[in-house]
């Protein structure tokens, strides 16, 4: 498994959760990335609520139309280009092909980088919870589903997408601090710090 800390310059890495919480508390625009099932939407929504940031879901607001129809790529980029102009937001979604327009407007990146088996468990348990319904962070008319193609996407995420993500961060956000969360415990600790009295 590739280690993000070995790929980013030391000045860009935030390893201390207290320091990360301080960054998040003052950031106006936060990008949350990671593999499906890792918990990035749940974390994004909690941070959005805590700091009154506009919550932007790439799945709900950009990619999907009802019935799991993919929106035209040009229209996707136009929507992203419009939304990033807002003053305060947290954007939930990885999409390496749009890092060129998102990272320059981002103050802080949270990389939710859970082990792939945990991500698969996350999507299976999410499917069970929302079976036959659409979850709030998904586009209307996109009933929760899971199939082998989606499982394969998760299983190969590190190999296929992480190099593109790291390259995108290096090229388009070389000065943006990045926090990497690799366990549920780290996520809980971060949330505790974010909700602690100032």
UniProtKB/TrEMBL annotation:
PANTHER family: MODULATES DNA TOPOLOGY, YALI0E33011P. This is AAA family ATPase. Gene3D superfamilies: P-loop containing nucleotide triphosphate hydrolases.
